[in-house]
Amino acid sequence: MNLQEKTLSELSILYEASASNVELFCLIKQELKKRIAENKSYPREYLFEKCNLQNHSIGIFFIPTTKSYEKYNTSVALINLILNESEFEHLQINRIKKTNTFGLIKANAFINLKEPMKEISFDTNEILDIESR
Question: Where are the domains of the chain?
Answer without folding.
Answer: 3-38, 44-132
